[in-house]
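Dear support,

We are seeing what looks like truncated structure output for some complexes. This example has two components. We would appreciate it if you could run it in full and send us the complete token output so we can diff it against ours.
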Amino acid sequence: MRFYAAADEDHKAQKGNIYENRIRLLMSNSVLFYSLAVLIISCAFAVVFLRNIFHAGLFLLGAFLGVAGIYIALFNYFLAAVQALVYSGAIAVLILFGIMLTQRHYRKEDPSHNAFKWIAFVLSFGIAGFLVDSFRSLKPGSIFPVKHLLYQMGMALMQTYAIPFEVISALLLVALLGAFSLAREKEDL
Amino acid sequence: MIGIFHYLALSAVLFCIGLYGVLTRRNGIAVLMSIELMFNAANINFVAFSYYFKGIHFISGEVFPLFVIAVAASEAAVGLAIILSLYRNKKTVNVDEANQLRG
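Here is the complete output from our reference environment:
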């Protein structure tokens, strides 16, 4: 296993460096981060404020893809792939199907937000401003890219986090079975 | 230079947008979508801290988002099933009209 990882590293040594340097260059110009941040924040605002729930679901897909780009900017390619596959591939599609199944009795004159919207606006964006202001004292600091990240993640999943990994798989199975039995048509009950 | 401040600020703003959606949206599916935004904000924090700080368990921040994604998937499935059965019984998906359990 260790030998395989080392050989793989040798093979990718030159090739990976080119890509990582290119992304580092983008990051030093801040272009990648700021464009992704603008994408994520604007998509999130659209999710929260749009009246049309289906359009909000499509913007949610954009926000998920932007977060996958943030993982690429943080050099965790595997997590970016998982985010793109599971979040924007599975969860967003599940939500879009849920929207399509429940919009028959949709009335246009209904308000899309409840009566607390101004209080909630002040509260949540006050919290956001407070948090961002309190982060300002943080120094930029140095970065610690992990060597052999995917190898180490796999080892951690199978050694340190073996029990949580199995519990999560059981949780996923139970939750999907429960969702099936909840959403099923019940004839005699 | 992009530091950890930028990632934390992005994550805080994303979390608070999600919080606003959870507090104010009437459509149950929109509430679920806002909860997913909050999960994503937490995941950005995990990965950013793991990238900018070195500790003994530095790999935990890279692995934990996988667990969060799995829990988010099961939460979305169960939440949508609940909303579907609510829709089937009451012909609405608005969470403020689901008041059967109110005393």
